[in-house]
Write a structure and sequence with these properties.
Elements: H1 2-28, H2 36-53, H3 59-67, H4 69-95, H5 101-113, H6 123-168, H7 174-183, H8 194-210, H9 226-242, H10 250-269, H11 288-300, H12 309-320, H13 324-334, E1 353-355, E2 358-360
Antiparallel strand pairs: 1-2
Helix pairs in contact: 1-4, 1-6, 2-3, 2-4, 4-5, 4-6, 5-6, 7-9, 8-10, 9-10, 9-12, 9-13, 10-13
Length: 370
């Protein structure tokens, strides 16, 4: 019996430390880190919402279902922390002896909620109860600080996404963005937009690795997503540099580098293998014929393009390769709505799987060679 109490007590200590480790690494550590408890909670919740979404006939219905996934996961994560703490300390109380499992569970629930409906008798029980109460209050304090931070970062991210809808349509596309800028006579000044998007990507990298739950928060508009917005802006800048007959502006190149680094950083957090220095002639998900069709559309609208189309294609592919696979992998991870040149071609990316350190997205087996 003594051996059983020792084993149960150690198991209780392990459970409590697992909860604290998950809470601290998820909320407190400046750079968010994956833990098994956090990952399993999100994975199970995701599986439930995928099952529910299969009953929806329309894309709008599926989007509404997945819009609830991230907020629900956050609430369930806090419930998981509280439940794990109660169970862990109940094991410890039982291991200390002198009570049944029901009494130990009641004392643990009383301690974490600080309601006092079950008072400890021995001094060691009182000490353990105070420790559990402090942990319970700490979890509440973390939640109070965590949720406003999450929604503040979400609001700042979505401001730019909604603004892009005005300029590039919904879902956004590089063709629509360039066309609208041309119609209003703003195409020559499009470089003025890139500094703002560079700042957006810089904050995106910091916030979506420090608080990875943000990756799964969906936009207010059903056809919009932070990752497809990123793809649209990067493609527009790449086309501007490679195709448009304009003076070379460094703002677009710097923004593409900032965006590529941000997407790669988020991919690394979720276990996606990324090439830090991809070859300029590596395969991309855009077909040469698609590129030619886009150039034809731009030319038909009276937009001046460079004469050497072959060099333009090589230049565009050289820019796109920097963010091509990270863009598609993140579109797959979040289940982004179908958008030209990004989430509409994620079939070659494997579905996310649960690894030892969190979500893992394997690279495609045989990327296409265009």
């Amino acid at each position: 019996m003594l051996a059983a109490r020792i084993v149960v007590g150690l198991l209780g200590l392990f459970t409590v430390q697992a909860v604290l480790r998950s809470a601290v690494r998820t909320v407190v550590v400046p750079r968010g880190e994956s833990t098994f408890l956090t990952t399993v909670t999100y994975k199970v919740t995701r599986a439930v919402y995928v099952l529910i979404s299969k009953g929806q006939r329309s894309a709008e219905g599926r989007e509404r279902v997945f819009a609830r996934y991230a907020p629900t996961s956050l609430l369930l994560l806090t419930l998981t922390w509280a439940t794990g703490t109660i169970i862990g300390f109940a094991m410890i109380f039982w291991a200390l002896g002198g009570r049944t499992w029901r009494s130990a569970l009641s004392l643990s629930g009383s301690a974490i909620t600080t309601l006092g409906f079950h008072a400890p008798k021995a001094s060691v029980d009182t000490a353990v109860s105070v420790m559990e109460a402090l942990i319970g209050l700490g979890l509440v304090a973390l939640l109070i600080s965590f949720l406003p931070t999450i929604y503040s970062l979400f609001s700042r991210r979505e401001t730019a996404v909604v603004k892009l809808d005005v300029r590039a349509g919904s879902p956004p596309s590089a063709l629509e963005m360039l066309s609208r800028f041309h119609r209003i006579g703003w195409l020559g000044d499009i470089h003025q937009d890139w500094a703002g998007w560079e700042d957006w990507f810089t904050e995106l990298e910091e916030s979506h690795t420090s608080h990875p739950a943000l990756v799964f928060f969906r936009s207010q508009r059903p056809n919009s997503s932070w990752i497809t917005a990123a793809g649209c802006v990067l493609d527009t800048a790449a086309i501007t540099l490679a195709v448009l007959d304009q003076p070379m502006r460094p703002e677009a190149a710097v923004m593409i580098r900032a965006g590529s680094m941000a997407l790669r950083s988020i991919c690394r957090f979720f276990g996606v293998p990324v090439d830090e220095a991809p070859a300029p002639n590596a395969p991309i998900a855009i077909h040469r014929q698609e590129f030619e069709l886009l150039c034809g559309e731009l030319e038909a609208q009276g937009i001046a393009l460079v004469a050497d189309r072959e060099q333009a294609w090589r230049d565009f592919a050289g820019w796109r390769v920097n963010y091509d696979l990270p863009l598609l992998a993140l579109c797959k991870l979040v289940g982004a709505p179908s958008t030209p040149w990004s989430s509409d071609r994620v079939e070659r990316i494997h579905p996310p799987r649960l690894g030892r350190r969190g979500w893992v997205i394997d690279p495609p087996d045989t990327p296409p060679s265009w």
